[in-house]
Amino acid sequence: MPKIAKVVVEIALDREFDYQVPEALSATVRLGSRVHVPFGHSTARGYVVGFADHSDRQDLKAITALISPKPLINETMLKLARWIGDYYAATIEQAIRTVLPCAVRRKGAGFIEQTLVTLASPAPDAAALKALRQRAPKQAAVLEILQRDGAQPLTVLVRAAGTTPSVVKSLAEKKMAILTRETAMRDPLADQVILPTAPLALFPEQAAALSLVKQSMDTLKPPVVLLHGVTGSGKTEVYLQAIRYGLDQGRGAIVLVPEISLTPQTVERFRSRFGETIAVLHSHLSDGERHDEWYRIYEGKARIVVGARSALFAPVDRLGLIVVDEEHEPSYKQAEAPRYNARDVAVMRGHLEPCAVLLGSASPALESFCNVRNGKYALSELTHRVDHRQMPCMRIVDMRVEAEQSGRMDVFSRDLVEAIRKRLDQAEQTMLFLNRRGFSTSVLCPACGYVAVCTQCAVKMTWHKGCNEIRCHICGRVQRTPNRCPTCGLPTLKFSGIGTQRVEAIMRTLFPKARIERMDADTTTHKHAYGRILGDFKAGKIDVLIGTQMIAKGLHFPGVTLVGVMNADLSLHMPDFRAAERTFQLLLQVAGRAGRGDVPGEVIVQTFTPFNPAIQAARRLDYQGFCDQELESRKELLYPPFAHLICITLESLRAEAVERFAQALAGRLAPALPKAVILAGPIPAPLSRAKGHYRFQVIMRSTSVKAMILPLKETLKALRCPPGVRIAVDVDALSMM
Ligand code: ADP
Ligand code: ZN
Known about the structure:
By secondary structure, the protein is an alpha/beta fold. The chain folds into 6 domains: 4-105, PriA, 3(prime) DNA-binding domain (GIY-YIG endonuclease, 3-Layer(aba) Sandwich), CATH 3.40.1440.60; 112-184, no CATH class; 204-386, Rossmann fold (3-Layer(aba) Sandwich); 393-437 and 500-632, Rossmann fold (3-Layer(aba) Sandwich), CATH 3.40.50; 438-498, no CATH class; 644-731, CATH 3.30.70.600. Helix content is 34%, strand content 23%. It is built from 23 helices and 30 strands. A 7-stranded parallel β-sheet has the order 11-12-10-13-14-9-15, sandwiched between helices. Strands 16-26-25-17-24-23 form a 6-stranded parallel β-sheet, with helices on both faces. The protein has a 5-stranded antiparallel β-sheet with strand order 2-1-4-3-5, with no helix packed on it. Helix 4 packs antiparallel against helix 5 (137-149), helix 20 runs antiparallel to helix 21 and helix 22 packs across helix 23. It is globular and about 85 Å long. The two termini are 51 Å apart. Adenosine-5'-diphosphate (ADP) binds at residues 200-203, 206, 229, 231-237, 386, 556.
């Protein structure tokens, strides 16, 4: 056994430290072990990430203790963490923190124990209680609660009695109450009734897809399968049966879904097929719930994990398959360091385990599509909906023509109004999509040209009608709506631009009898609002659902026969080279919501640019056509997927400090980069100021990430970052704001 361990401590230092492995621990310390080590003048917790026979340092200190005997993180996950650190230019600590959830790191091994308090028998009689009430009223209160409500956890009891644990403990000392240690298990699905389902008989395309995935699971050839299946084509059934195949051989699975589609609906489908062996991980779990789920997986009690982005790091032993549903979703990218893309890390984990990886989407990202073309991934297609239900017909409405004919700018085209009316008459459901909340998206004064802009951010303020406030959607700043223009003093303020609130208001005047609901970040602040609205919609208690991207994805409502896209140009005019791809994907997703039942669906898209190629391709539901034309222009400009793109964003409260540093960075980086790397900037970021911080960007593109990362790391090390300047390095950036 090597004498020296390399340890990463839980402080953000991008370094490994050498420690001696003491004789007593040499048999138990392993790769990934969590240990206590002397650090500076105190001790720190750390992870063993490697071993060595000798160290350059003479005066090595020794590991003080082993925290958990079985490592929390195995060799594969350690390798994965290293890869994440290297590829996404993050520190090894950041990477380790990513693969081990905070709740697990803090609490350590085992289930959380809690103290249960029971009333001792015989219970005190009325006289004894009365005497106690006079001597020690708090103790008496505790006993009364126990008598009334029975045994309960110490924390709950203390809160109910408005007292402290010491009061309960003194009761225990007097043998009037009994304290026991119990392991607590919090089950996030505890209150749900699940009916089991059996595998469905597959359609030929589904069967072909399943057999390719099985082949991949057996032989790792191909290592990655891209399942391109139109919405409602039965991709999920393929996932379920592939997972069953693995499970029968003792192999576990991880299924990633975007947070937004991690609805009870989705989880229910997995639960009803696999029952108890499902663990669920998402961002709304409490630390305790997350900890328990993690340990159920760690101990092999749960073999299948369904979850959002970070579920990719679940400690599933003998992993057979990783599924990434809606693989094109930008929400798989983490917004803070390490800025990893869970889809890409899934492919890497699959390679390291090794196990098969299945990516599914109705509109795969161009990156994945390209990986099929160049032979890295195998493709499987589901070209039609289950039962050959028709794909919805998409109609494009030219809002310029509308305006010309009616002489004004209406929010609803006549076609859309008529289509909604028809659905209401036939008791069918409608969804209206607009990716902007609030009532009006700008507040301006036509007399003097004043526009309400956030004082902290370079964006316009949005008017929210109900509360009569104007709000900044970047920093959240709220202000009462001024009655008069703050610059010229005239009472002429105008509210223009359309948000979901206004769509709702107009709908209510157009169709006063219809049952209308809105779902966006404003109406779902309450924890259960999201589930309630979706439940009501599914139960047919809502005729028209208006919403932001929250309603665009993954949901299955057979009663919806009409989907209206209020303004397709919104995403098209984003300052981002992926704007066309996003718009195309969005339209396809939205279209996927229509006609999932027996009646064929219709989609009406309102736009001022009806001939835009992305909109036209979406109308024809022509994925290949869109890819061909979009890839051509990306290739010409050497944009992803033909190159990797690194976006470095620099921010500071002081404008000139950040601009100067951005210039210094770009100036020093340029000569350090290989010739093939394209360097752009510094330029002000599209969102040039946020929360008071001025923002600049430097952007690099190259076919090799390594060619950019190494010089970047060197340059950042050599340049001292001035105080107050923040640097965010985003490798394979998806958002360029
Ligand atoms: P996708 O994940 O591609 O959007 P789903 O898996 O949600 O599609 O399938 C749509 C609907 O079709 C679901 O209600 C599902 O139960 C049903 N379905 C899927 N496969 C079959 C099958 N082989 N036979 C019958 N129904 C199926
Ligand atoms: Zn702001």
